[in-house]
Amino acid sequence: MATRGTKVERHSVSEQPHELKYEAKKTGTTPKKVEDAKKAAGSNQRSAVEKKIK
Fold it and tell me: How far apart, in whole angstroms, are the C-alpha atoms of residue 52 and residue 54?
């Protein structure tokens, strides 16, 4: 069982619709704003995206 992939996945936000919806619900915003924050941050790292949203 590989654990590396699991750790990487927890720390990033992918382009998949369910990931965007989850992050939007978590931060109290819309999936579109999460997608825009990802582009503005230039990264898909969860911490960087959450900083751009706030």
Answer: 5
